[in-house]
Amino acid sequence: MRLFSSVIAFAAIFSSFHNSCAVAASANNSVVVTLNATSDKLLAHYELSEPVDSFEWEDGAAEIRSRTLQPAAGDIRIEGSHVGRTDGAPLSHFDIQIAMDDAQPDGVYPIASRVGDAGWLVHVPHLRARTGTLDTKVELKFPSAFVCAPCASSTPAGALSGIFSAPSDADVFIGPANEVQHQNSPAWTLIGASHVPAWIVPLIQQAANQALTTYSEHLGQPAAAPIVVLIYDVRQARPSYQGDTTTHGVIALRWQGSMWQDSSDALIDQVRASMAHELFHLWNAETFHQAAGHSAWWLYEGSAQYAAQLVNRQMSKASNTAWLASMSQNLNTCRLKLDLEPLGASGFDNTPASNACGAVIQWLAELDSRWTSGNQRDFFSIWHSIFDAASRNGNQYTVDDFLRIAFTPNDPSRAQRSALAMLNERGAERWAGLIQSFRSLGLKVTAQATDQSLRDRLLLHVLSQSCAAGYYYSLKDTRVQIKTSGGCGPFADRSETSAVEGHDLFTDVGAAFDAVSLNCSKNRPVTFTLSDSAGKIIAPCKTAMPAARETYTISEP
Q1: Cβ count near 518 (within 10 Å)
Q2: Could you tell me if 338 and 348 are in contact, meaning their C-beta atoms sit under 8 angstroms apart?
Q3: Which residue ranges form the domains of the chain, and what is each CATH number?
Q4: Tens of pLDDT along 502-535?
Q5: pLDDT in tens, 198-217
Q6: Does residue 49 contact residue 29 with C-beta atoms inside 8 Å?
Q7: Which residue, among 554, 511, 519, has the nearest Cα to 540 in the 3D structure?
Q8: Three-state SS for 323?
Q9: How far is Cα 162 from Cα 141, in angstroms, rounded to an integer?
Q10: Quick one: three-class SS letters along 361-405?
Q11: Alpha-carbon Rg of the chain, whole angstroms?
């Protein structure tokens, strides 16, 4: 990666960086996007090689563009992902003003974020032409005190102002040179440290050094030297964090809200793990990648989460008790979010379930590998083998590769069978199989259904028998408020109940669950007592009720 300034002397400082970021445009059917950045303004000039009736951006960011992009001239209109002239004439060039996205939505890259008081981080893919329409070349212009990363100098000899080319598939930093710090042994670049809470910066540095050293030593394959950009916005009312990794080793860590002003043990762990998580993506998503794209989010995110937890354990010197508590949290989050559904279902892509459940599968794989190899193989051994095989297959790996390498077939712990059940099967029974696998691998696991999980299973199961549309419930004091969107048979919107089959839903939940479970198994109706009258709701229940969600505690035997 290279960082460049439009001052020739400053550019020379970075001349030793490897130049791998220039993007060439084809001679025909192309567009040059020139980003002009100053401390308070960001403009994009589009120059098309041939006039078109309508310019088209990549899909997927129309809502963000509507908030942050404005035509710089009145004869240009933006409609969704399309740009055209208001008079309908052919379009050969246009200018766009880019504003910072205050919403900073989770799961979608913002087009532009402020780095400190004067810098910018630009997600260039949201600005390039739609794939298959025009070849996109990106150029950058900025003041002499600014630098860019990743980028490459494309200034003609003797030119007075700097012109730089940037990749069209990555985040790009443009901003003051004094925001850039180069780290050595291992090599990486830190940007924006002066404008985030001071306690965060040393943790990021320590976590990056530890993670890069650990991954490089144990994974057997080199990765790009990362460019880590820190972004902090105290104005946001809702505290949040978002980490992004794009190509060319660019990592953005974003914190919003005043919660981050002061440290706590929990926040320290989160900051360290967040840095280590994103760095693992340099291996499992950048250097190597899944053959099917990002379809197996649980593998992509779960392995990064588990790797980060291992690094954080090294740094915090956590006891085994604390480690098992964190693994219990993964398992309980997975159980809560996944419940009866298979992890392989598309609805769990890029959700808390993909992270937590993916990490559970990684832990199960490591335990199985350690057990069957006499403690000779671990998580990093597994991924070293996956990446080694991928290096001979176009740097691609698959879910089948992971399952084949990570688990021992026909092992008595049935660890692979438990992982496959979590991925592909519905129902509560597979959780018992998973717990038995952990026990077979030498752990003590206690499972207990709470009043909350019993009540949740009971209510949602009975509601599902009557409701064709949306339904949910909320708790108010000692009453259950049932809310539906119509088409729910005997349940009227905003029904309130406190008891079922004569058992209180707060003080006698276990007996209520058992009574409803018995009725449903015998295809008998279930009777709810209304809170505000002597009335009753008699609801059908024609399918057996699954076991309630349990809370797990994992400990040493």
Answers
A1: 13
A2: yes
A3: 4-182 (2.60.40), 188-287 (3.30.2010), 451-539 (2.30.42)
A4: 999 999 999 999 999 999 999 999 999 988 766 8
A5: 999 999 999 999 999 999 99
A6: yes
A7: 519
A8: helix
A9: 6
A10: HHHHHHHHHHHHCCCCCCHHHHHHHHHHHHCCCCCEECHHHHHHH
A11: 27
